[in-house]
Amino acid sequence: MNTVEPIKDMNKVLDIADYLKSRKSQYAQRDYMLWMSGIYLGIRISDLLKLKARDIRDKDTIYIREIKTGKENYIEIPTEFKTELQSYVRNKKDYEFLFQSRETEKKKDNHGKLISLDKPLSRQQAYRIIRNAAQRFGIERTGTHTMRKTFGYFLYQRTKDIVLVKEILNHSDISVTRRYIGLTQDMKAGAVKAMSYRRK
Fold this sequence. Notes:
The protein has a single domain, classed as hpI Integrase, Chain A (Orthogonal Bundle), CATH 1.10.443.10. The chain has 10 helices and 4 strands; from the N terminus they run ααααββαββααααα. It has helices at about 10-20, 30-40, 45-50, 55, 80-90, 125-135, 145-160, 160-170, 175-180, 185-195, and strands at about 60-65, 70-75, 100-110, 115-120. The strands form 2 sheets. It has a two-stranded antiparallel ribbon with strand order 1-2. The chain has a two-stranded antiparallel sheet with strand order 3-4. The protein is elongated. The mean pLDDT is about 90.
């Protein structure tokens, strides 16, 4: 199985966003906002898909309890993205998932009556959306982690503070963060490229 990598070319990150937004599909806006939320917020896909309109509306910070770790996490909504995100939830009901599936779940209520419940987009469908969009631009080794890894990579490029990136991604160790955002591979490649046995 190939390892999922961050996208390190900003133009390709933006190409994917433009492509998702411009498609002739009733789900174009949802898929575009999924991508933008992933690269701006850096939340794991399992946590991202569980968000509802009420978690976002009129907020500067998103509170989540991470599904994977059980840890509490507070995510600042970047200023540049806040207006677009608030506009996206404006016409949604508080209980609606940000990234709604077109499928519904059938359940019986307390009186035995069959009711339909909204469902969030599945992880598998999110994977297909991201992978298909990335492949249009010749990008392989992508998946749902691509968004979070891309977020971490560009956060590091902006701050050069690996400890801060580790804390924001809620990782346990710096070496995990380096590997996760592709720095370990960059460092290895740079070290080997600079090898020389010439006399000085």
